[in-house]
Amino acid sequence: MTKIHNLDAVPNKFIDDPRFESAMSTKYLGALAGSERIYVNIDSVKPGAKSAKYHSHTLQEEFFLILKGSGTLRIQNATFPVKHGDFLAKPAGKGISHQFINDGTEILEILDCGTNDKNDMVEYPDENMLLVKTKNAVFSLDLDVNEWSVDPNE
């Protein structure tokens, strides 16, 4: 049975940092509503803060809508101003790194929607790190492995 929810009554267990004491808080609306194949979040970012580390996804397609405030979108090593009403889609794969920065004076509120894929991997190019979600493990891409080969007969 379908249940109607309200933004003003999201239970704390579906809010990351419900008292908004840190730089960012997220409401997990899709999870609350029972969504399985997509996620729907509202990210609230305080002035001077960033939405996430600069990153790209291998399998996760995303859509963003600026609900309140203004800031900067860093995407593919370029920056663009964003404000209330602006929106964009970011296709899966293709190494499209992205991050929102609140360089405004009020809270930047972003509707963040996308696909859930358990096999998604996240690359953080500023740190040269890779998150493998299925393993819940992070790997440095700076390490050289000299004694390993793809050849199964070595």
Highlighted features:
6-stranded antiparallel beta sheet, Jelly Rolls, mainly beta, 1 helix, 4-stranded antiparallel beta sheet, 154 residues
Offer a concise description of the structure.
This protein is mainly beta and 154 residues long. Helix content is 3%, strand content 42%. The protein has a single domain (7-118), classed as Sandwich (Jelly Rolls).
Write a structural description.
The chain has 154 residues and is mainly beta. The chain has a single domain, classed as Jelly Rolls (Sandwich). The protein contains 1 helix and 13 strands. Strands 1-2-3-10-5-8 form a 6-stranded antiparallel beta sheet. Strands 4-11-12-13 form a 4-stranded antiparallel beta sheet, with no helix packed on it. The chain has a 3-stranded antiparallel beta sheet with strand order 7-6-9, with no helix packed on it. A hairpin with a 2-residue loop joins β6 (70-75) and β7.
